[in-house]
From TrEMBL:
Pathway(s) served: Amino-acid biosynthesis
Cofactor(s) required, per the database record: pyridoxal 5'-phosphate
GO biological process terms on file: L-arginine biosynthetic process
Species this protein is from: Leptospira perolatii
Entry's family note: Belongs to the class-III pyridoxal-phosphate-dependent aminotransferase family.
Name assigned to this protein: Aspartate aminotransferase family protein
Length: 408
């Protein structure tokens, strides 16, 4: 074995011995990255169509992000939410200017944003004196791994083995207007919130229709319930607009954010619309780390970079390239069942298990995500060049062609 292989073996042994066995890891340890490229222990190059699951939206080692981290770490990283923070206040203003009038709670992850949104809904029920409130969520959704997160998540495989989940959550099928209407009728006077991802990510990129979202907006307004959007994965340019809800013609009452907000530095946020901004008052919620000086300054720079570098136009032009090339592949390859999604948030549903396809892509230097058993997700950074986008798609095409030929 060469030095790099020995070093990797050591990392693997330590991981297997000391880290809880929660993930089925691919046999690679990345050493460094430059924009859309990652390099492993052998200096082998990979094109990154995963972005650490829609997190490193500006690519790896962005010079502006590095500079902000250096400067802020030099000055101050953490104090306490018991004091004012210039960085947190500027980030909150920037988030509100880019979403809807209201206020922001800063936290550390998507799950924590979900938790805050769940507490907002429960607190609103308390305020309205509803003793047995109902929150409507979607089958196949994903909202995080805490107990409130898995309770809101409509997937039995994520529920199982943890005893009783939180009560008062009902799931309807995504895009089923009948089931949505029926749920609001069945629980008339008790529904306090409707939770949804605009595009269900972990379940393989399932976009909600405008018809379904409009109906959800009407029903929540009529029933004085909160419409809460989970834009943890779709936010910050991923779908071609800063936020996915911008194409709806209305704004939500609350929105959860994380993933792309920090370019890889952990941060999450809950945005609460003006009308509901007093529901969580002093002492009802909080966090030690959330939105500290370092996290807030990185997030501020991330959002500014998406705007000032006009990254949304790159997302849209690269999206056109990717979607048309995937459709061309579909003409030739019967194992491509469906192509779904928007912007650089694309799902390719196959007729075969997607994990084996992701493994073959990895061998050939392309990182893609396999989800929902048969779906490959294409989620490169917003900064990807047409050159590497096409090279990545070439690899995907050659891998899928091999699997197609084997099937014959
Ligand atoms: C990733 C994700 C979460 C959970 O975020 P974490 O930061 O992993 O806690 C919640 N909702 C959606 C839609 C996600 O994609």
């Amino acid at each position: 074995m060469n030095d790099a292989a020995t070093e990797f073996q050591k990392t693997k042994e330590l991981t297997d011995k000391y880290l809880l066995d929660l993930y089925s890891r691919y046999p690679v340890a990345f050493r460094y990255g430059v924009n859309e490229l990652l390099f492993d222990q052998d200096n082998k190059q990979y094109i990154d169509f995963l972005c650490g699951v829609a997190v490193t939206n500006l690519g790896h080692s962005d010079p502006d992000i590095i500079e902000v981290i250096r400067n802020q770490a030099d000055k101050l990283m953490h104090t306490s939410n018991w004091f004012y923070s210039e960085e947190a206040s500027k980030l909150a203003e920037l988030l509100i200017l880019n979403t809807f009038p209201g206020k922001v709670f800063l936290c550390n992850s998507g799950t924590e944003a979900t938790e805050a949104a769940f507490k907002l809904a429960r607190r609103y029920a308390e305020q309205k004196q509803i003793g047995d409130p109902i929150i409507i969520s979607l089958q196949k959704s994903f909202h995080g791994r805490s107990v409130s997160g898995i309770s809101l998540t409509g997937q039995s495989k994520i529920h199982s083995g943890f005893g009783k989940l939180l009560e008062g959550i009902e799931y309807v099928q995504p895009n089923s207007e009948e089931e949505l209407v029926a749920a609001f009728e069945r629980y008339a006077g008790r529904v306090v919130a409707f939770f949804a991802e605009p595009i269900l990510g972990e379940s393989g990129i399932i976009p909600l229709t405008h018809g379904f979202m409009n109906l959800a907006r009407e029903l929540t307004t009529e029933n004085d319930a909160l419409l809460i959007l989970d834009e943890i994965q779709t936010g910050f340019g991923r779908t071609g607009t800063m936020f996915a809800f911008e194409t709806y013609g209305f704004s939500p009452d609350a929105m959860t954010l994380a993933k792309g907000l920090g370019s890889g530095f952990p941060i999450g946020a809950l945005i609460v619309a003006e009308k509901f901004e007093k529901v969580l008052g002093p002492g009802t919620h909080g966090t030690t780390f959330g939105g500290n000086h370092l996290a807030a300054s990185v997030a501020y720079e991330t959002v500014r970079a998406i705007q000032t570098r006009d990254l949304l136009s790159n997302v849209n032009s690269c999206s056109d390239i990717a979607i048309s090339r995937l459709h061309q592949m579909q003409q030739k390859l019967k194992l491509i069942k469906e192509i779904r999604g928007k912007g650089l948030h694309i799902g390719v549903e196959l007729t075969i298990p997607s994990r084996q396809v992701a493994e073959s892509c990895l061998n050939k230097g392309l990182i893609v995500n396999a989800t929902a058993e048969t779906v490959i997700r294409v989620m490169p950074p917003l900064t990807i060049s047409a050159k590497y986008l096409n090279e990545g798609l070439d690899i995907l095409e050659s891998v899928l062609t091999e699997f197609q030929n084997e099937q014959k």
